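Record pair follows.
FIRST:
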Amino acid sequence: MLAFGVKSIGFLSFGHWTDHPESGTRSASDALLQAIDLAVAAEELGADGAYFRVHHFAQQYASPFPLLAAIGARTNRIDIGTGVIDMRYENPLYMAEDAGAADLISGGRLQLGISRGSPEQVIDGWRYFGFAPKEGESDADMGRRHTERLLEVLTGKGFAAPSPRPMFPNPPGLLRIEPYSEGLRDRIWWGSGSNATAVWAAKLGMNLQSSTLKDDESGKPFHVQQAEQIELYRQAWKEAGHEREPRVSVSRSIFALTNDLDWRYFGRDRQSSDQIGNIDEKTRAIFGRSYAGAPDELAAMLAKDEAIAAADTLLLTVPNQLGVDYNAHVIESILKDVAPQLGWR
């Protein structure tokens, strides 16, 4: 379904830092403060979103809500989100409090991408956070259970019995998590790596995030499999009878080669192709290619990407260790030199 022309275009940062002379982010402080600066710069350039990947036990962003709240206080228009938070590690009620606060600070611009997670830095890292699957449950099942509880809490319905002797007066009835941010429930996205989980997300009324990797379920090119996943998601959404229209995002590594530095960093990616690999002992996955080329060449390549055409939102993965100025240039090159050729702007 090639239904969308104009697109919401944002960036997705993994937030790496490395104490190395050639890294533009030498510390966690560098990565976090530069993320705020890049979000401000992206908004000024006309981008539509600033999204951040979450990894635990790694030199990358981990707890996202302080960062999202800080960006919300420094910007006025762009979406602010994650792509994605691993729900195996999350207390759904505490997460709802943090998310509600960040959303209110931003004026209702939070777009919260969540999922069951990706391959980890440590073995069963969620156990160190105090979580364990129930009997007969996998860790993925546990992540989805945490998700369903989060979705329930975000409706704003009361569920907790009030104390007969509260410290402060209570409103009547059962109590809900506070602060409550109206509308946030409709801005939850599920990061799906398979067709089945995309359908599951649609049934629960979550938006869809599909990244640069998914289960290899047919042997077809990555963008074709991803477009088919999006179509299955939209069909399931329609069958579920939800009243609003869902949002769908895809992520891509896209670099317009407009100067010598671009060519030095990413010229080799002109020959990129899909890659096949295993993300664990049971799952064969397909990793989508990167795109690099002169703006006209790049537009011609991107016009053939069926999944980008089917999505309403495109997230540009950025090499955050190259610094704010260079990443702002990467984003601006796409917005100014490529997007108009494709009708995205």
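SECOND:
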Amino acid sequence: MNKSLKSVTCFMPSIGKSAPLRRNYTCIPIPCAPRSTLIASVAIPGCAIASPILTLTSCARPCSNILACALPLFQMIRPRGYPGSITQLRRVVAELRPPHGEAFLRLRTFPGEQAQADWAHFGEVAIGRARRRLSGFVLTLSYSRALWLEFFLDQSLENFLLGHVHAFQDWGGAPRSVETDNLRSVVLERRGDAIHFHPRFLELSAHYHFATRPCRPARGNEKGRVERAIQYVRHSFFAARPFTTLTDFNRQALDWRNQVAHQRPWPGDDSRTVAQVFEEEKPRLLPLPAHPFSCDLIRTVRADKTLWVRFDLNDYSVPPRALGRALTLAASPTRVRLLDGATEIASHPRSYDRHELVEDPTHRQALLEQKRKALGSTPSGRLAALVPESPAFLQAAFERGESIPRLTAQLLRLLDDYGAAELAATLREALDRHTPRLSSVAFILARRHRQRRQRAPLPVNLSRRPDLENFTVSNPSLEAYDELTQDPEEEPDPEQ
């Protein structure tokens, strides 16, 4: 070997660590020229110094990342006097040693033979106080390119199964095999060709009689049809598309699938559309079973002392008789059901917010019948039930030293005089003005009535007659007054 050449091992600078991170780069002989020679070559950056190195790199092993190759070269020639930037070096590396792509064979399948499934992440959406990950499930038939697109708020196993079920129902049949990634919803463990499948996904494949074929790790090209379909969805459907709810977004996705995606030319023959080829493929699909596969999330829960069950960051009410008993929770994307054995005792719409109380009014009413001092039986409970703004008002008043029992009694009297709607609007205005006091509430009520040119109701003092507070006056019959106008000695007319 020439003595002017010296072997150099490449080290990458550490990222957040004190020790350098060693990478397996090809060791390249670096010509060691005198420093005066290197400085003299500054006139043409990259020619006198970088060219001999890059000539040798063209004989090294191919690298698919140009930037990763240019960085170690830049670190080697910079201490030797190279004055240029790494951007210039990257341009030269890209010209001398472009990345080498891998060649693939074109996949050809029979009608109804194969489908490919995958998830795609589409950012986050805000639902109340929660932020949920918006994910799209895509299932594509490899022959006709017909696809199924459905959006969910997570990539759970239940949603992955439900996406398959909805796709098969929409197509009117199932393919004979499904290509997937090695995601946890399908593969629990894999060593070479030995695969430990998820039992729930095996139940789905047995129910619809299709074979599951996970592609090899890091070989996404084996399911290139669905990867290309996801790119098509991103560019053609998702970009700059507004939506209000998840149901509305899935409705738009279905319309786009039918009107745009299935009307594009079929890659195998430009004279036919994807929809036309799909109609030819539908008879080749496997027939569906009599009943769809159940994809609900099943979990065992117990109600706490306040008769609430926590699920997915929210609380759902149960009847009082379910206290302390083991219940079965069955959750779908739209409903949350609670079962005691085989009997359904509660059903709620599913909430994707966080810390939300989803309550059935009948459960509260049953609790009120059992407990005398439950919510609504105490003065503060009655006030909170009729005026939802009162708890925040009382809390703010308590922080300013007000007496809560006395303030609650006075607010109840105002509630009887002015009504719940008027008192609620007044409490909101008092909170906005940061004046949670009874005098402020009375002033706002009087001002609102002056603006409407209404007379304020006169207060009635029943302190001396507490028995009249709940006194009810029935409407008398007015026929008794007609009898007073008649002469008692006059005989009634038989014709009348």
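COMMENT: The chain has four domains: 5-96, 114-284, 297-367, 379-458.
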